[in-house]
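Listing S7. Sequence submitted for prediction.
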Amino acid sequence: MSDMDLALKDMMTIDGAIGAAVVDYNSGMALGMLGSSKALDLHVAAAGNTEVVRAKLRTIEQLGLQEGIEDILITLTGQYHLIRPMSGRKSKGLFLYLALDRGRANLALARHKLRGIEEDLEV
């Protein structure tokens, strides 16, 4: 089993997880995905969240900030969507995407676990 498969499985063990993906934000394509909800199209989520990441990176550049994105949180009425750009040398241009059921998720714990998964994943 590949590192990516293990990372996706680890992401789906986070309480409340309904979908997970590793996405290339240069192309908008999901390199891997795993989900438990038919209502969440991970292909659409990967492409749409690619635009979110690109827009934020452009804004940071235009503001002249010397900062990197740790994570992006989108809060919906029933879900949390976490986007975590990967910072490793070999994984530059990729992000982790995790959709959570808001009623079952612990956001602080999910962010903490996602950070650990990102640190361990080599793509």
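Caption to Listing S7: primary sequence and predicted structure tokens for the chain studied. The chain has one domain: 3-120. DSSP finds three helices and five strands in the chain.
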